[in-house]
């Protein structure tokens, strides 16, 4: 309920001030869409199965649940990665350079994120990787057990882990460390404020970065 209400509030606010949205804020809207999509398509089945102490439905509903989880999960992860990269670029570029990140650019990036997520989600349906029940039997996801007993499952899980989890996570960490370093350097410069001719401008920039 909180997931649906919270993300619905984000989408309602974005719709109300659509013309005023800055291009990076479209990624926040996309993250809300992915999260609310996950809540609506997965949570009812997961909650009902948990109360039932067993998965409700057959193989078809299991594949559907796993597909939705993978699609929206990868989309959320890649959106967070894109947000981190754009924040890093804006932080480390001049105002004129940061203005180059237009709404069209972000829309193309969002389209790429969804296509990338959809590609990974449908790969198990076309023969690379598998979907199946989780160990506790009340939800479905990637068949992790295939990592040990199938070369097909092994290659898929390893590739997915590297390209959909490790690489985005490392990118996010690197970007926010870069932003933190920028803040640290700006703070050091403010300590020597008497020697800075544009101290007010620097302080405003530091506030925006923070």
Automatic annotation (TrEMBL):
Which InterPro entries does the UniProt entry name for this protein? GPCR_opsins, GPCR_Rhodpsn, GPCR_Rhodpsn_7TM
Keyword terms of this UniProt record = G-protein coupled receptor, Membrane, Receptor, Transducer, Transmembrane, Transmembrane helix
Output the Gene Ontology terms for molecular function: G protein-coupled receptor activity
- Residue limits of the G-protein coupled receptors family 1 profile domain? 6-210
Whether Cytoplasm counts among this entry's keywords is no
**Residues passing through the membrane, by range:** 26-51, 63-86, 106-131, 154-179
Keyword presence, Transmembrane helix: yes
Q: Classify the protein's membrane topology as the record does.
A: Multi-pass membrane protein
Using the UniProt record, give the first listed, main subcellular location: membrane
* GO cellular component, as recorded: membrane
Subcellular localization: Membrane
PANTHER family, from UniProt? OPSIN
List the protein's name. Answer: OPN5 protein
Give the species: Alaudala cheleensis
